[in-house]
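SAMPLE LOG
Freezer: B-3
Tube label: C17
Construct: single chain, 132 aa
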Amino acid sequence: MRISARLGSLLWIGGFIVVALFSLKPNLGPPGEYHVDVVLHLATYFFLAYLPFSIPIPKLGRGLMIGALVAFAAGSEFLQHFMPGRTASLSDGIANVAGIGVALAIVWLIASRARPSAGESSEELSENQQIS
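STRUCTURE (predicted):
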């Protein structure tokens, strides 16, 4: 299901703002027990990295969104070092970037399966799809 560019962009911006607020708010953070915080980091950044590919926006817009997300994923952990009651965490930073990486890998796999193979033209592909 594809959503409109406006709604998708608003969801992404809203999600990014929420992540920024929770990441930089002093004395706030998910519990570190059982690595729940690492799972939350991975899932949050996965969602924010996958969302731009689900909305009809130009490639440049997607690139800017992913670039901002990568910069914030690393930068927010660094900034937490200076926040009262917060600590920078290498595992959280790795989980942030891993979430983005997993999303991009899934997008790449989906896109590569949708492309015609080297020996098959797009016309042959559409004919084959119509037959089956």
